[in-house]
Each structure stands twice: as C-alpha cells, then as structure tokens.
Write a structure and sequence with these properties.
Cytochrome p450; 9% strand; single chain; 3-stranded antiparallel β-sheet; alpha+beta
C-alpha cells in the first residue's frame, strides 16, 4: 500500500469498480448491492434470498440472506473477518526474493487499504480476547457513567444548530466523535484534529467490499495514518502518566500496536456507526409519527427504539467473512479461502423471523416465528465490529432521549440522502430537519 503510486491506486480501484459494475449487468443481486447506487437494497435482499440458502455470486463470494444460515455463518469459528492468507509468508521466487506481481494481477482491497491498522482484519480469537479486555472499560455497564454527558452533549449541539439543521452533519457527527474523544481521553489541543480525522475516515467498512473513489481512498488512508499518529502520542503520554481511561487500562494488558489499532477502530468506525444508528433511528421514527410521539412521551422507550433500528436498518448490512478451512454451510461445500458474505439486513427481514419483518415497530412481538430459529443479533460473533456494540447503543439511546425531550416537534424538510458506495453501512449523508 505504502509503495503504490496514485495512478496505480486509482487503476486498482477503478478495476474493482468496473468488475462489480459488469457483474451487476448480469442481474447478480449481490453485485448490484455492491454497486450501491440507485437500486432498491431491500428488493435485492429478497432476490438474494430467492437464490437459495447459499448462492455463488459472480462477484466470487458465497452469499446468504436466509436468517438461519446467516446466524450459523456468524457463529462459525471457521469463518472470520481475517483472510487466511494474512498469516501466510510472502511467496518467494527461486532467488529468495518476493515475486513481482504480473501486470494483469489486481490486488484485493484488503491488500491496498489500511484495514489492519483499524483492527478490521483481526481474527476471532483476538476479537474475543480484546472484548474481554474492553468489557470493564467500554462495556455496557462501564459506559453508563457517560450517559449524562452524552445527553448533555446532544442538547448542546441541538441548541447551537438553531431551528433548521442537518441531523447528520450538524448534530450526529460532532456528537458521536466528541463523546468518543472524551471517552478515549484525547487532550483538548487535539480535539479539532480528532474530529477532522473521524470525518475523513468515514466509509472504512464500506471499502471492505465496495471499491471507493480515489479521493475517498486517499482520505481514508490519510485519516487512519493520522489517527494512528494522534493515538500514538496519546499512548506515549499514558505510558508516562497513566490515567482513568481505556487507553491506560489497555496498555496494562495489551501490546502498544494492538492498543493503537483497537483505539483507531473505536475512534473512526465507532463514531461513524453511532452517528449512523442515531440518524437511521430518527428517520424511521419520523416515518412513523405514532412511535415518535410515544418516545417523546416516554423517553424510557429509547433502548427499544434503538434495538428495533438495529434490526430494521442495521449499521452493518453486509458482513464479509473468509473460510479458514474447508467447511459445509447450508448443505454446500465451502472451500478454504472462500469468501462468505452475510446479507445481514436482508436476513433480519426474512419472513422466518415472524410476521411483517419489514415493518418498523419497537413494540412488536412478531408471531409466526419458526421454532428453534437461532437468534441473529446485529452485533454477533467474535468480530471486530462487535466490540463497538455497547458504545453504539449508548450514544444512540442518549441521542434519542435528548432529541425527543428538546425537540418533540421536529420534522423533516427534505429527503434522506445516503452516501454513495455505502453497501455495508447504508450511511445517512443528509437528514434535513426543522424544529
């Protein structure tokens, strides 16, 4: 990645995008999801499900949108975010030197974008170990002490925004990044730099499956490098003067490079997912005025609204996994090294989970659920994004409580716009509101 010129990077990204576009012309629903352009993602999810429990996409991945198969894949220890080649030594030629790639060979996105520095290439064992380390620091119980500060931060952002504002850019982004910054203990002199790096790092999860624009890739690479440097300085300070913060606590139990990558994941991906869930929840609530009124009358409903949002519009809609050994899934032989993609949003709308799964209803107890159907939580399995679940829930719940209390008469003034090429996150780009 570091040795790739701008023209080489652009060529690789354009090649990946061109291949996905061409495959989409063959009516491959997963390839059309990767296009993430004007197609209806819910209809494409239905088409994936109609292809069977597990279908082979021309995009060179096994794909499922069936609830039961998705749950099995996410729970299978042989399937991981980490590619099996990541631990293999580099191929050498007869002279003992690394082989130069042939002109027609195009590296995978994981080989040219800095997912490793974001902890996004971590295996299940590392995720389990880090989750145990983070539980007393960033677990649900530990984060409760930040709830008053989170609600106050949302109120302050709302007051500064005036009567007409964009929920994403004027409220959610700054709110989420600001709280994450405080939780990590970033010093005041780095606040503006931290916020800018979080903005530039948006779309990291999407880039795992959908080739970004060259400018977006540059911003991502620059932001990951910059956040790593910022956190590296913070880590050095905490080594000299430990404090009551997650960085200091992690340093006592994990190597410095891992602390930096985990904190970069929290900073960049955690902030974005929290902002996405808050915006998705508000968009769904304003489409269902009776639910919004119920929340305004009873802020205690916020956790139920967030859980329903995680099901109805999950912040991670596609989960790319790799087989570390030969296995069988849904009666299909999956060779080692193969990619298995869980179309999570579509799987959560599988009619097997009960009646009307496409309806947003936090109070619903859906009937018709198939007996013995495994539970499929959004943040499931020993995966990197699962580490962020308590943080995302806390910030989304706190934001909803404060917004419903301070602006119960809020309404939309324009359509919800989503970021292009956001097949994984379906990220809200603009949500214009007025009070």
């Amino acid at each position: 990645m570091a040795s790739m010129t701008e023209s080489e990077l652009g060529r690789v990204l354009l090649t990946h995008r061109g291949v996905q576009w061409i495959i989409g012309t063959k009516d491959d629903p997963y390839a059309l999801l990767l296009r993430a352009a004007s197609d209806d993602p819910h209809r494409l999810g239905d088409l994936i499900r109609e292809r069977g429990p597990l279908y082979w996409s021309s995009a060179e991945a096994w794909v499922t949108a069936r609830h039961e198969v998705a749950a099995a894949a996410l729970a299978d220890p042989r399937l991981s975010f980490r590619h099996p080649d990541a631990d293999a030594p580099a191929a050498d030629d007869d002279a003992g030197e690394q082989r130069e790639p042939m002109p027609w060979e195009v590296p995978a996105l994981r080989e040219i974008l800095p997912f490793g520095e974001l902890f996004l290439t971590a295996g299940r064992a590392d995720c389990k170990r880090v989750r145990e380390l983070l539980e007393p620091l960033l677990g649900a119980e530990a984060l409760e002490r930040w709830r008053p500060a989170a609600e106050q931060a949302l109120r302050a952002a709302l007051a500064a925004a005036g009567t007409e504002f964009d929920l994403r850019s004027d409220i959610a982004d700054g709110f989420a990044a600001g709280l994450v910054r405080e939780i990590l203990g970033v010093p005041e002199e780095d606040h503006d730099r931290f916020a800018a790096l979080v903005r530039g790092g948006a779309g990291a999860l999407d880039a795992m499956v959908c080739s970004p624009h060259l400018r977006t890739a540059h911003e991502l690479i620059t932001s990951v490098d910059g956040m790593g440097a910022l956190l590296g300085d913070l880590i050095a300070r905490r080594r000299e003067q430990p404090g009551d913060d997650p960085v200091s606590a992690l340093l006592a139990a994990a190597p410095e490079h891992e602390v930096r990558s985990v904190c970069t994941l929290v900073a960049l991906v955690g902030s974005e997912l929290a902002a996405n869930v808050l915006c998705a929840a508000v968009a769904a609530l304003l489409d269902h005025p009776e639910v919004w009124r119920s929340l305004c009358e009873n802020p205690g409903l916020a956790p139920a609204v967030v859980e329903e949002t995680l099901r109805y519009a999950p912040p991670v809609r596609l989960v790319p996994l790799y087989a570390h050994e030969d296995l069988e899934l849904a009666g299909t032989a999956v060779p080692a090294g193969s990619q298995v993609v869980v179309a999570l949003e579509a799987a959560l709308r599988d009619t097997a989970v009960g009646t009307e799964p496409a309806v947003f209803d936090p109070a619903a107890e859906r009937s018709g659920r198939q007996p013995d159907l495994p539970v499929l939580p959004v943040f499931s399995g020993e995966l990197p994004v699962t580490l962020l679940a308590p943080l995302v829930r806390l910030l989304a719940e706190s934001g909803l409580r404060a917004l419903s209390a301070e602006a119960p008469g809020v309404r939309r003034t324009g359509p919800v716009l989503r970021r292009l090429r956001s097949a994984v996150t379906g990220a809200v780009l603009e949500l214009p509101l007025t009070r």
